[in-house]
Write a structure and sequence with these properties.
Elements (H helix, E strand, L loop, with lengths): L10 H7 L30 H15 L3 H14 L4 H13 L3 H14 L4 H13 L3 H14 L4 H14 L2 H14 L3 H14 L3 H14 L4 H13 L3 H14 L4 H13 L3 H14 L4 H13 L3 H14 L4 H13 L3 H14 L4 H13 L3 H14 L4 H13 L3 H14 L4 H13 L3 H14 L4 H14 L3 H14 L4 H13 L3 H14 L4 H13 L3 H14 L4 H6 L1
Helix pairs in contact: 1-6, 2-3, 3-4, 4-5, 4-6, 5-6, 6-7, 7-8, 8-9, 8-10, 9-10, 10-11, 10-12, 11-12, 12-13, 13-14, 14-15, 15-16, 16-17, 17-18, 18-19, 19-20, 20-21, 20-22, 21-22, 22-23, 23-24, 24-25, 24-26, 25-26, 26-27, 26-28, 27-28, 28-29, 29-30, 30-31
Amino acid sequence: MLKFYGKLILPLALLLAGCAPLEPEVKPAAPAPVVKLRPLSEKIKGTSKSYFHFIAGYREELAGNLKEAETSYVQADKYNPSSSFLSTRLASLLVRQGELTEAEKYALKATAQDAKNLEAHFVLGGIYASRMKLDEAVAIYKKVLKMSPDHQQTRLLLGSVYLDLGKYSEAAETLEVLVESGKRPILGRYSLAQAYAGLKKYAEAEREIFALLERQPRFTRGRLLLARLYEAQEKFEEAEATYKKAQKIDPGNRIIRSRLGQLYIRKKNMKQALEEFKVLRSEEPDNVSVHRTLGFLNFDQREFQDALREFRFVLARNPKDEMVRKYVARIYEELKQYKRAEEELVELLSLLPKSLDGHIQLAWLYIDQKEWKKASDILDKAVKHHPEEGRLHYTRGLALSRQKQFTEALPHLQRAVTLEPDREGYLYSLASAFYELKRWDDVEATTRKIIRINPKHANALNLLGYMFSELDKNIAEAEKLLDRALAIEPENAAFLDSIGWIYYRQGRLNEALVKVRHAATKMPKDAVVLDHLGDIYFALEDLGNALLHWKRASEADPKNEKLKKKI
């Protein structure tokens, strides 16, 4: 599911900003505050040393010397250990230095010292949120709102935490109150739009975005969210127009360009995506992610040398990038440089010895080259690392099937199905092996299971229908099965041959001839199709064409003794 928010607000940033408005705005730099110290004669009895260290710390804090300020505040706390104010001050200062664990201790101390200290609770909530203790943050923010229902900054942060928790209804309920108050009109509506998006209430989300953009047209994040709302609804043209409008407002924004490039990928407009990411590369030449994406885009466009250049850049910085190295190997396979493809995959396995995908891709490289022993050895190694991984047993079964060793393939395919019982591909390969072994009941049971899982599995429909036609059994059902298969793939040569063979079994010879001749135009050297065509011509008493097609079938399958007898 599309996630419409990231970290909308870092609570710590808000703590540093105090109660300043959250809306984007430009202000002149404020002069450093002037601190008017009270005369020493006004020191409170028993806390003079604490007060002295506090003032010293405050001066250091104003000067930006946070460590020195911390030292002074710790001394002040030492002389006045019951001060909730000092504990809160220390917690806030530690937050600014990123020392969240220590800050949490002081914030907890402050709330224990004074259960009504609103600022202490607010600081503690921010610390919890930043440390991803989100449930604790919710509890504290609720407590703050109970103490001060109009504390809208807390309401905004509470809504943000609900978003992070995926509690969109609670986020919407919280943020609706904030928006109705008229406070935080930009980020309040922005957050509320995120909540509505999470609830798939896209119209309401768009309404909030339009309202905030009317008030703040240059709020880039708002336009980005609007574009993503359009993407979620597959309104790609509106999304593209929104990204382009955002680009005009903020032409140097790389996030916009990246999102636009990704949108083009979703639209399958790879050439345009390529152009966007090339611009990003020129702007961020060291950005590995950009080079990575360019590699995949170039691969898609079959610009293999360009893809290799991008992928080499990535691997130079992250040699363990499994996906990239696999694609490099695929490029060499496409270029028929099989030795180099092997070298890449061997290198991958040296870096990531347990890589499941690496083992499987290397095994298939060997299978395609008919290097059966190497394929078997690499799969044996992989099974040691992943004994319960169905894909490995499936690959072993397919490799043996390729060698016509169906009896040996069967236990591997059965093991794969045992591990992943509803994988259609595993079941179909198992059914095919049963077919080759003439285990007809098993073929029927397995194909019917596939069809129950996926009624539109065209190959399973064809296999079951064709088996019935071969056995001269359930011919009416076979025809229905094959009609369903052809409705899904009307130009599939195997399916055309199967339905033609059904017609042949029914004595509908002219209809059979039309279908099987159509299949033969697509598979002119397929022995089964040519054999069927010969049988149909023979039944039509066209002996010349029958002999011609049986001879062609025999040339395609010279070991077929039945064909020789027919001839």
